[in-house]
Design a protein that fits this description.
By secondary structure, the protein is α/β, with parallel strands linked by helices. Helices cover about 30% and strands about 30% of the residues. A seven-stranded mixed β-sheet has the order 5-4-6-7-8-9-10, with helices on both faces. A hairpin with a 4-residue loop joins strand 8 and strand 9. Helix 2 crosses helix 3. The two termini are about 35 Å apart.
């Protein structure tokens, strides 16, 4: 895990640092231009080591500050083993302001967030933090000191995973200045804020697949070839009439059941919008008759009084179609995670047996 001093040195032309524990293998050829190596979580495939140059990292930080209203003091509430946490440190280096740091060893607790935020918010200027949806949900659920602290930040960046619309609506209604972000290690973290690309970032659709270009791109994967001008993501998307980018989900999160193509993320959105549902993960399970069937793991707002499973399935049928209705629904206390707040779909699928 890179320290602030190591990262500051790497951004100034020093040796590249590795976000995760362990030695960084020798960098050869074009790889030698890297300031940071981040290994992806592997939630959608084999983990890969992304090599990022200092220019891409600092440009991302500068563009973020420009979008948010200027540099400020950051509270680090994410692990620095992934790009979202690392970028909080990079932005702090660029702003020339020491970040506040939340101790995540005991896990993320709303009360601890309030304590960590207090000295940050006491300083003059603008104040920012970055969270994953699970952390935001915990702050909103308590409606206590943690939420009160979150409301004082000039912006709370939310990324790492898709945020349920109901959580966004409730958070904003309660006064949290939430900014949704889309990006990945390969784009130096978030590069699309509230649907609008950062200045200089280019987004295009090729066959429905999102591609990103611009000064925030990584150099490439270690052991592979340089990315070049464009990076082809694994996400499907569309551009709304107002020019905002909408991410529809992973291209590989589509199953075929009885000859029908089913976008699992679309089913998830319908479930997450239903009363009594906090979040949901939908996976495809092998089936001898249908090829694959839809299975849903649902986290209820009230574990003691979960919503009716048949009503949830009917809602999916009304919006998406009967062919997309889950064949199996399991109510769970929480969804398994890997990486920076991403749901571990493989673990969810395995839980169904």
């Amino acid at each position: 895990m890179a320290t602030l001093d190591e990262l500051r040195a790497a951004l100034s032309g020093g040796d590249a640092v590795r976000a995760q524990p362990g030695d960084l293998p020798p960098l050869r050829g074009w790889e030698a231009g890297a300031a940071l190596a981040v290994t992806t979580s592997g939630s959608t495939g084999e983990p890969k080591t992304v090599l990022l140059g200092a220019d891409a990292l600092t440009t991302s930080a500068e563009l973020t500050h420009a979008r948010l209203g200027g540099p400020g003091r950051w509270l680090l509430a994410l692990p620095t083993t992934h790009i979202a946490g690392i970028q909080v440190l990079v932005r702090s280096v660029v702003a020339g302001v020491e970040p506040g740091v939340m101790d995540l060893e005991p896990g993320f607790r709303a009360a601890d967030f309030a304590v960590a935020a207090r000295p940050v918010l006491a300083t003059p200027g603008r104040h920012y933090t970055a969270l994953v949806p699970t952390q935001l949900a915990r702050l909103v659920a308590t409606e206590g000191p943690g939420l009160a602290a979150a409301r004082q930040f000039d912006a709370v960046l939310i990324g790492g995973a898709a945020t349920p619309p109901s959580l966004l609506e409730r958070s904003r209604r309660l006064g949290v200045r939430v900014v949704t972000t889309y990006g990945m290690s390969e784009t130096s973290g978030g590069c699309v804020y509230d649907g609008l690309p950062l200045d200089g970032v280019r987004v295009r659709l090729v066959g429905g697949r999102i591609e990103v270009g611009g000064p925030v791109l990584a150099l490439g994967y270690q052991g592979g070839e340089p990315f070049g001008e464009w990076f082809r993501t694994g996400d499907l998307g569309r551009v709304r009439p107002d020019g905002t980018v909408e991410v529809l989900g992973r291209a590989d999160d589509v199953i075929i059941s009885g000859g029908e193509n089913i976008a699992l993320t679309r089913v998830e959105r319908v479930l997450a919008a239903q009363p009594g549902v906090r979040e949901a993960c939908v996976v495809g399970l092998p089936d001898p008759e249908w090829g694959q069937v839809v299975a849903a793991a649902v986290v209820p707002e009230d574990p003691g009084d979960p919503p009716d499973a048949d009503e949830l399935c009917a809602a999916v049928g009304d919006v998406v179609g009967r062919f997309a209705m889950p064949k199996r629904v399991a109510f769970v206390a929480e969804l398994p995670l890997r990486g920076p707040g991403k749901v571990d779909r493989k673990a969810v699928a395995s839980s169904f047996g």
